[in-house]
Amino acid sequence: MADLRKAARGRDCQVNEKTERWRPVIGFEGLYEISNQGRVRSVSRWVSIGKGKRLSEGRIISQSIKQGYPTVCLCNCGIEQHKTVHRILAESFIPGSGEVVRHLDGDRLHCTEDNLAWGSYADNEKDKREHGRLVYGEGHHQAKLTIEMVKDIRSMHERGITQLSIARSIGIGRGAVGCVIRGETWRHVK
After folding, report:
1. Is 69 a residue whose pLDDT tops 60?
2. CATH 3.40.50.720 given to domain 2-131
3. Mind listing the pLDDT tens digit for each residue in 117-134?
4. What is the spatial distance between Cα 67 and Cα 79, in angstroms, rounded to a whole number?
């Protein structure tokens, strides 16, 4: 089998065996492998074509970016599955488990064994804050308020205007006004 893989290895599949280690992709054993450097390849194998068989050479699978993460499309028995590279790598190389796979340097595109770790959602949010990737305030894609509007809400409340009146004048819900006043949201604005 090793000779078959070696003979079928294409030019784009040459690897430095000293620094790059390969393991089977969990759930796709015998079909795909992933390296500790974040590359995914198909395994050389004989496939049935009509009444005959032909050698399907192993090759590096191209990666696309979906929702900011490198992703590959893996097929098993004609069923396609899109998987994120960092999740596949963690399942194959990193012991333990967790809710999410964390990128220790904060770069979603850097999928190597030494840059990934299992963790909780809280760990992941802490990492985002440390790496400056936590989106909040006006930078958030769903933000309806600006910093000036938040300052206006707080000053109106200090002058004794009711939350309902503030909400109607700005055009947002009373609950959102209450959250701003109590500092549950927009706490970074003083």
Report:
1. yes
2. no
3. 999 998 888 888 888 776
4. 22
Q: Is the pLDDT of residue 148 over 90?
A: no
> Structural domain boundaries of the chain?
2-131, 137-182
Can you tell me the distance from the alpha carbon of 138 to that of 67, in angstroms, rounded to the nearest whole number? Answer: 21
- CA–CA gap between residue 112 and residue 89 (Å, rounded): 8
Which of 28, 26, 19 has its CA nearest to residue 93? 26
